[in-house]
Amino acid sequence: SLCCGFTYSNAANYLISNKATSPGEIITHRGYDFKVGKSAFADFESFLAANTEDNSIVYVADGTYSKNITITKPNLTFLGNNAYSDWTVTRKAESIITGNIYINASNVTINGFKFTEKGRIESTSATNANPLSGIKVLHNYFEGMTIGRNTHNPLVEIGNMYTDATVNSTTSQCRYKDCEVSHNCFKGDATHYANAIAFGGA
Asked: What is the pLDDT of residues 26-36, one digit of tens each?
């Protein structure tokens, strides 16, 4: 089957855009019309606080989004301005993330963003009794990070890292399943080069 990535049946569409500041205004993005305050929001926090539908596609327009956010609602696909675009091709204006994205829900996709400064993705809340699945980190570009090279905060962290006897405990395992990190680019420098990807508790 072929998936082009921009529309799904039975899914609601939303928009996050720095321009969505006037309640009731209609903003057109990727051929869809969004109404500010109902289906268009100025930032991630406003969207996550709204009474939005399950199984939603959330387009995120180009611009900079700097606050830390926590995603607790499952079945959300966040599509940045370069969703499904490999880093090897010329990318459009970026949807830029400079804070942490914490994922505490299943079936959440982060696709087509640029992460810079302290921007990173973390999901460490799953337990053996309450596992998470279907987390996908795709087609993102990590560059210009300011996370120190001696820190223990990888840019994409899924699961807790264990180094002692608990690593072999059944409660430390089977916390995450069916997760995917692919088609991303990680570009460091001599001063800042945090670990790129860390999986634990799979």
From this structure: 999 999 999 99
Q: How many residues does the chain have?
A: 202
- CA distance linking residue 88 with residue 22, whole number of Å: 37
Cα 16–Cα 19–Cα 24 angle in degrees, nearest 5: 85
Task: Assign 3-class secondary structure to 59-94.
Answer: EECCEEECCCEEECCCCEEEECCCCCCCCCCCCCCC
Name every residue whose Cβ is closer than 8 Å to that of residue 31 and which is 6 or more positions away in sequence. Answer: none
* Count of other CB atoms within 10 angstroms of residue 50: 13
pTM of the model: 0.88
Report CA torsion sign: 38, 12, 42, 179: positive
At 115 the three-state DSSP class reads strand
Tokens (6 digits) for 158: 């899924």
Single out the residue of 125, 38, 110 nearest to residue 77, CA to CA: 110
Q: What single-letter DSSP state applies at residue 55? A: S
Where do the H-state alpha helices sit in the chain? 44-49
Q: In which residue are the tokens 């079936």 written?
A: 107
Kindly state the tokens that stand for 33: 């019309």
DSSP state of 28: E
Q: What is the mean pLDDT of residues 76-99?
A: 94
